[in-house]
Structure formats: C-alpha cells, structure tokens
Amino acid sequence: MNDDQLSNGPYSGLRIGDLAPDFTARSTAGPVRLADFRQNWLILFSHPADFTPVCTTEFVALARGAHDFAKRDCALMALSVDSLFSHFAWLRMIRDRTGVEVRFPIIEDPTMVIARAYGMVGKEDADSGTVRTTFFIDPTGTIRAMTCYPANVGRSIPEMLRTLDALQAAGEKQLAPADWQPGDALLNPASVSLDEVFAAAEPSDWFLKGGAQ
Ligand code: BEZ
What we know:
Elements: H1 3-8, E1 24-25, E2 32-33, E3 41-46, H2 53-64, H3 66-71, E4 74-80, H4 84-98, E5 106-108, H5 113-117, E6 132-137, E7 143-149, H6 157-170, H7 194-199
Parallel strand pairs: 3-4, 4-5
Antiparallel strand pairs: 1-2, 3-6, 6-7
The structure holds benzoic acid (BEZ).
C-alpha cells in the first residue's frame, strides 16, 4: 500500500483490473501478507462484526465450503475491525456451538487502515463496522470481481463459487452469460470489424454467437 492509499484510501476508488493493495496484518492463522497469496486465487472479504448473527452463518457456511474453494486453488481471507482476541473467542464459540472450525485467516484491522484502503468502510463513517465487501483476486494480484452486500444480507456461497468458476473459465478472452454454470457454453466477445458484421450469416451473429439463446 502506498502512502496515498493509506491516508486517503476510503471509498478507495479500487476498480476491477486494479492491483489489490498489499498489506501485512495479524490474523487468526498468524501474520499474513497479501502478496504472499499471489500465484493462487484469493477471496478477500470483510464482515461487519464478530459475534453477530448473519456473520456467524456466513463463517460457518464458508468454513464448511472451504474445500470447494481450495479445489479451485482459491484461498479465503476474512477481515473485520475487531481484535485478534475477539476473532479467537468468536471462532471458539462457533466451534463449540456448531462443530465447525474456521481455519482460514481472519485479519484484525482495528485502525481500519486496510478496510479504508479497500473501501470496506467510508472515510467519514462513524460506525467502524465494515460492509460485506468481497474481492476476487487472481494469481497476478489483480482484482477481477467485487461485490458489496449490506450488513443485513448474507452472501451466497454457491454464488461466490459460481463467480470464481466463471472468472477462471472465461479468463481474459471469453464471456460468461447470465446464470452461467460450470459446463455451460461461454460466449465470444462481439466483433469489432465492420467486414465481419456485414459478412455474418445472421444479423446478430457478429455480437451474439455460440451458446446464447
Ligand atoms: C449480522 O451479521 O447479523 C449483523 C452485523 C452487523 C449489523 C447487523 C447485523
């Protein structure tokens, strides 16, 4: 992270295609550095607070589904402004209540320096709780997708997996249509050649070909 991002990061202006800002932090799995996760996919996501109902259901669901992300060479990394010891106490309670051990790292961010850099909280927010922001980061460290849910709606793990599958399958050159699922056909980008537009057999073939109905 550069000084500008550290001091002014809020709403951060981060966009799909940007390099995910690097950081080091304490986490429930020991010290972590974002850049160390390059070479693989990474989903970095924030949650509003430990010991809250929706967040608890998300963490149980993500921990249960962790192997599905691992199969896709994708690590999970969570973040909230709560302290490391709060995270520990919460994970212990989750384990005792549900039998589920959350083993992916949960970062502590009490100064909100990371949350601000990633736009997980606003610059002027009095409430330090982050929203449910999710960053899909590819093996080069580039942000490939971002989602943002409010505190009162939990994320869908199948949709997170579908997004990851679509990003991995489509790559830079192909397109995943609405409701795409693994195994479905991908689309090709529209032609940018007028000659191809005029040469297409059907009037729509130049922009909508293969797999689309
Ligand atoms: C929840 O996870 O249930 C939650 C967190 C913050 C505000 C409201 C709900």
